[in-house]
Design a protein that fits this description.
Elements: H1 2-8, H2 15-22, H3 31-44, E1 47-52, H4 60-79, E2 84-88, H5 99-115, E3 120-122, H6 130-142, E4 148-153, H7 159-166, E5 173-176, H8 191-207, E6 212-215, H9 219-229, E7 237-242, H10 247-255, E8 260-266, H11 270-280, H12 282-292
Parallel strand pairs: 1-2, 1-8, 2-3, 3-4, 4-5, 5-6, 6-7, 7-8
Helix pairs in contact: 1-12, 2-11, 2-12, 4-5, 8-9
Amino acid sequence: MLNEMITGTLQLIPKSIVYRVARRYIAGETLSDAVREVKALNALGATATMDVLGEFVKTHAQAVAATNMALQMLDAIEEHKLTSGISVKLTSLGLDIDENFCYTNLRSIVKSASARERFVRIDMENSPYTSRTLELYKRLRKDGFENTGVVLQSRLRRSAADLMSLVEFKAKVRICKGIYIEPPAIAYQSSEEIRENYKKLLIFLFEHKMHVAIATHDDSLVAFAKDWISSIDKSTYEFQMLLGVREALRDSLLKEGYKVRVYVPFGKDWYGYSMRRLKENPEIAAYVFKAMFS
């Protein structure tokens, strides 16, 4: 009850308090902070995905800056010999400004990553961007780029149909529950419905021999996935987790020999990301309450 009350009033809590809790879940504000975090994860045996926070840009200059930062991440990965890919959000690359402009930025990133044999995950944002995100992914594939993948959310009712449309590309798909609050007409609302749809999407991917990133911290879904992948080629799947979340589970999966990739966000736009994560996880909100009095 207290957690939900805190979650409902998060906007009233000073940023300095939120940061004291959120800093566990973000690498820091700079690229060097992210490099340091990825090195530590690599030392544990985990791989990583680096992501600079920020979305919904309104100017060409902001989109170009985000594109350049993605290219700098690729440079840093090479320079420091990190076991990592990167992820990008299309609204940070100018999707709300002009779709062709966004695609030019995206293509330049994926092309640079391809030359370095690195992978670029195109993040999925809220539902107004789902179709356009998938279309730009398919456009990349038709242009010959294979070092890229997409994300589908089990919260959305459309995800099963979207997955069908990706079969011809043998797409590399990350399945997550989804953190965006969407209306009942297009999204499942209960935890159980979201969880059951997640299982259906996983089974589809396994049966169609598509590479799947199992992105979850849910014990029941991890156990479900383990049952299915016991006889599947390990190169066709990996578990994915967020920085600072369920680290004991992460370590357990690594110890059992599974490939685990950790999402490593960084940047000055940490507040929006942190607020979404806190709202998604009311239990974490209790730490905010404690931080207010410590």
